[in-house]
Amino acid sequence: MAKHPTFTCQSCGAVYNRWRGKCEACGGWNTVVEESGAAGPLAGPAATRPSRAKGRVFPLQALTGESREPPRTLTRNGEFDRVLGGGLVPGSVILIGGDPGIGKSTLLIQVAAALASGGNRVTYISGEEAVAQVRMRAERLGLAGAPVELAAETNVEDIVATLSQGPAPRLAVIDSIQTMWTETVESAPGTVSQVRGSAQALIRFAKTHGTALILVGHVTKDGQIAGPRVVEHMVDCVASFEGDSAHHFRILRAAKNRFGPTDEIGVFEMTDRGLAEVPNPSELFLAGRDMATPGAAVFAGMEGTRPLLVEIQALVAPTSLGTPRRAVVGWDPARLSMVLAVLETHAGVRLGGHDVYLNVAGGLRVSEPAADLAAAAALVSSLTGSALPPESVFFGEIGLSGSIRPVTQSSARIKEATKLGFSKAFCPNPSGEREERSPASIGLAHVADLAARIAGTRRRAAAE
């Protein structure tokens, strides 16, 4: 039977029976490309296909004497292990994406070298660089003596055959999955069919032999991992490596993790010897802050299970333009518009004739609603010209009615602030649930209370 060509979207993986200028699934233009029929895992002559025997079922509870899952393998990189949930799980598959030059290969060669130095078999396979290039990077990082197995190969069948020789590797790194190709798929490397087929073959090997597999993925302009979404569903953990060339730190953030908490982050600092761990990132983000400057508020946030303190800066300046400007870096612009509307409606803070600039210091991106109170405090402080108390932190969600709503893990936020020398915490009033609160916490019920406190601080400073 003749194979009928299919048309696949290179952005989302949607399949059509004819060419289309616009993908109906993701809305992308000119992303639908013709691909030949791909051979699946059961493709080939009928005589070579495995028989369709009935599968076995297993009880949910473990049987007596049954071997349990092997313990996690620590990579000797505390921040990397934190993101994974405590180390590498045998047979797990991790997909790491990030902008070009952000440091993905540097981080992975450091992790591979540390794990190999502990007596484990580790294989690093590069589809973009030659072996000599990988060795040069290792020499710059001082890792030339690590017993890491290197290879420059893109054929998946050859890679699986090499990894199957001898004992199964404890860790295998594929850099990157977009450069891999398999003989069972009749299309060019980098297409949706090739990425999906290559990932499926590598994941099958990892699950069968208990090898932890790390796949490096390219990203699109929007920061999303390139290729079909189905690859993200096939892997156990999806992590993104974030950072800015203007700052010297990098953040590894887990968006999906079947063996640990999601939204966990690991913080690294880029140095001349590679990426160094930052065990206390709050000190890094708060370093060099000017405590006497109006418009700066310290936000006590949570990233996964880790409390994190970061400074939110605001600048409110009069404008002569008909439409005031709103510029945001590191926060949701829609969230800023909502906070401005609430302050003007329910707190009497007039910001309609002012330009508003909001920045999260250090380049970190904050997404949780608990940053509303800190942003509002910074805005009111900048408008009134009164500096906030230097020993205070802020956290809380602001509703459209102006009420300040409770947030999760308040005790952990206050504990982290106290550890770093902050004695006051402006936060929502305690909810009905029992939660340990610090005597230094100051409960607020409405944004009008926040504006009144900041205005009262200014009047007291003027009287003195």
From TrEMBL:
InterPro entries per record: AAA+_ATPase, DNA_repair_RadA, P-loop_NTPase, RecA_ATP-bd, Ribosomal_Su5_D2-typ_SF, Ribsml_uS5_D2-typ_fold_subgr, Rubredoxin_2
A GO biological-process term: recombinational repair
A GO cellular component entry from the record: cytosol
Cell wall biogenesis/degradation recorded as keyword: no
Residues spanned by motif RadA KNRFG motif: 256-260
Lon-protease-like, as annotated region: 355-464
Domain of life (superkingdom): Bacteria
GO molecular function: ATP binding; ATP-dependent DNA damage sensor activity; damaged DNA binding; hydrolase activity; zinc ion binding
Coiled coil location: none
Residues that, per the record, bind ATP: 98-105
Keywords: ATP-binding, DNA damage, DNA repair, DNA-binding, Hydrolase, Metal-binding, Nucleotide-binding, Stress response, Zinc, Zinc-finger
Domain RecA family profile: 69-219
Domain remark text: The middle region has homology to RecA with ATPase motifs including the RadA KNRFG motif, while the C-terminus is homologous to Lon protease.
Family: Belongs to the RecA family. RadA subfamily.
Protein purpose: Plays a role in repairing double-strand DNA breaks, probably involving stabilizing or processing branched DNA or blocked replication forks. DNA-dependent ATPase involved in processing of recombination intermediates, plays a role in repairing DNA breaks. Stimulates the branch migration of RecA-mediated strand transfer reactions, allowing the 3' invading strand to extend heteroduplex DNA faster. Binds ssDNA in the presence of ADP but not other nucleotides, has ATPase activity that is stimulated by ssDNA and various branched DNA structures, but inhibited by SSB. Does not have RecA's homology-searching function.
Protein name: DNA repair protein RadA
Organism: Enterovirga aerilata
Gene designation per UniProt: radA
